[in-house]
Design goal:
The complex is a heterodimer of chains A (114) and B (112). With 114 residues, chain A is mainly β. Helices cover 0% and strands 51% of the residues of chain A. In chain A, the strands form two sheets. In chain A, strands 2, 4, 5, 6, 9, 10 and 11 form a seven-stranded mixed sheet that branches. In chain A, strands 1-3-8-7 form a four-stranded antiparallel sheet, with no helix packed on it. In chain A, strand 5 and strand 6 form a beta hairpin. Chain A is globular. The N and C termini of chain A lie far apart (36 Å). In chain B, strand 6 and strand 7 form a beta hairpin. Chain B has 112 residues and is mainly beta. The chains are: A mainly beta (114), B mainly beta (112). The A-B interface holds A 4, 31, 33, 35, 40-45, 48, 58-59, 90, 92, 94, 96-98, 101-108 and B 1-2, 4, 30-31, 33, 35, 40-45, 48, 88, 90, 92, 97-105.
Chain lengths: 114, 112
């Protein structure tokens, strides 16, 4: 299994540009989520999904859109990038079970918005 | 808002010593998890303790949970240089066991 994969690893955008961060998992996990990590802030939840076709907002959803058309993929879209979205973005997945709570994280995408 | 707050923010020890990190949180939880992050990498799950558990062990890791004080501690025994990393606590609360709220982390440096 590849686990959780994220592309690209690095990205530089100009203010106002749009882009999609890709996340895929091959573990048949129901739950997927996106976090951003800023210096000194820990990780903050952006959006999450409990299954295909179901998404919901986390703590910091503004400026980001998500969709979940398949179990495997959970892309994060920035419609109009802003410098405040400069961050490292992590995707995570897990089974939706009270007995199996381990979340598996991808390697991250480092995004810079100029 | 940050649910967990780790203490200390940074910790430097010698190889072979024990490292203790603490985490405090604000609201009732379903479980508390500890993750490790090596520099520039993703997070790796270390251990999970449920709200009805008080102590858990995994290899050189020992986690305690005191729900009355809303706090947890992570002990790494006989530390190694490879343990150098940032350690985060994360809490799951409400109806979700998978929607995590992370603390800001403790940066552990283990000197050879």
């Amino acid at each position: 299994n590849a686990g959780v994969t994220q592309t690209p690893k690095f990205q530089v955008l100009k203010t106002g540009q749009s882009m999609t961060l890709q996340c895929a998992q091959d573990m048949n996990h129901e739950y997927m989520s996106w976090y951003r990590q800023d210096p000194g802030m820990g990780l903050r939840l952006i959006h999450y999904s409990v299954g295909a076709g179901i998404t919901d907002q986390g703590e910091v959803p503004n400026g980001y859109n998500v969709s979940r058309s398949t179990t495997e993929d959970f892309p994060l879209r920035l419609l109009s990038a802003a410098p405040s979205q400069t961050s490292v973005y992590f995707c995570a997945s897990s089974y939706k079970s009270e007995f199996t709570d381990t979340q598996y994280f991808g390697p991250g995408t480092r995004l810079t918005v100029l | 808002s940050q649910q967990g707050e780790e203490d200390p923010q940074a910790l430097s020890i010698q190889e072979g010593e024990n490292a203790t990190m603490n985490c405090s949180y604000k609201t009732s939880i379903n479980n508390l998890q500890w993750y490790r992050q090596n520099s520039g990498r993703g997070l790796v799950h270390l251990i999970l303790i449920r709200s009805n558990e008080r102590e858990k062990h995994s290899g050189r890791l020992r986690v305690t949970l005191d729900t009355s004080k809303k706090s947890s501690s992570l002990l790494i025994t006989a530390s190694r240089a490879a343990d150098t990393a940032s350690y985060f606590c994360a809490t799951a609360s409400g109806g979700s066991n998978y929607k995590l709220t992370f603390g800001k982390g403790t940066l552990l440096t283990v000197n050879p």
